[in-house]
């Protein structure tokens, strides 16, 4: 059964479908970067709210800024913007659910900048949300400043009426709303980076100041940028996932999304033009998201990086395969318990011991088959946010450095592009060639790699103790392999 609005009544009874009238949904959110995570998270929460009979004026219009997003747009458009969310778990009580919260999608490359800016400037749009990846915020990690030299930013500075970048589009739309008196919208980041709202605000104001200082002042005084902690493991959708959906559930979906049952969203309640009543479907609103954010980024994302490069070098290709190896489980437990947990402030409503056990169980989920390649991707952008802060604190405290140094040593080995079995693989990172050049020669490797302040900051290159720990673990990986290195580290 092809997934379309007219076919919804004929879908199997086991499939949850929208209980609301799709034609009654009005758009109130524009979302830039419609990928798997957005469709499994913000769009899923919004659909859940609509299923209660509320929030029908908060439908989502997707916005794409990259040429490659035409595939997603065409897939969704071919099925009336419906898609299937499939929960994957080792338990049998998982849900298959058709989502209807996304109602439209525009592409800069296809529909043009003017059409996108006009949509964003529509007074009905009261929230513009983002999932543009850690590297999409145009921030220089070594300086913490906006990088105006990037090609898309230079284009928008030269052609402010035909923007192609996220921040060019946001500022053009806000300028239009300001001139038309239709008021601001909330800009809400849903990306995995510390203080994501603050980062979005900084990048938006930096760009605005480059084109119009008065606009920047208006944005600063009127637009809100709430911080958020978001969490749901969402693997890349595979051909096998689509095939399984057809064979097991009778649904022909051009691009379903698969995810784990666990989902969490902690969000600061700072919205200038209203918001959906997401608290009715499980979103936790708070005045300060910082402790939740630190917990998630250091424990979940940091632990993901700690196991992923080691696992890939060992020859594993899925997270659950890595977690089936007792050495990896013990290593991750030690990393979380001994290196990260002492750095965390109390988190209201969260038992950290239970949370860490939940992470072990989530990483071990066989049914979700989360690809290590997905977690490995964009390492040069992930390290500054997920691992470097933990290392900096360990250095400052004079603490044990070997477990954390092994994470970096494993990345250095991973960048060589060959695992312990001699199998070659690609490096999914926009700066792959640059990073691979840093580790090409053994001589001076530590100085070249650790000295890149845009990745490792200023503190790590100055720490001889960390450099020694890095070189010690790099040598162990070369001579003992991954298992031998972990065995030695865990028996000390």
UniProtKB/TrEMBL annotation:
The lineage of its organism: Bacteria, Pseudomonadati, Pseudomonadota, Gammaproteobacteria, Pseudomonadales. Residues 288-475 form the Mannitol dehydrogenase C-terminal domain. GO terms for biological process: mannitol metabolic process. One of its GO terms (molecular function) is oxidoreductase activity, acting on the CH-OH group of donors, NAD or NADP as acceptor. Residues 28-280 form the Mannitol dehydrogenase N-terminal domain. Gene3D superfamilies: N-(1-d-carboxylethyl)-l-norvaline Dehydrogenase, domain 2, NAD(P)-binding Rossmann-like Domain. Pfam families: Mannitol_dh (PF01232), Mannitol_dh_C (PF08125). SUPFAM superfamilies: 6-phosphogluconate dehydrogenase C-terminal domain-like, NAD(P)-binding Rossmann-fold domains. This is Mannitol dehydrogenase. Belongs to the mannitol dehydrogenase family. UxuB subfamily. Keywords: NAD, Oxidoreductase.
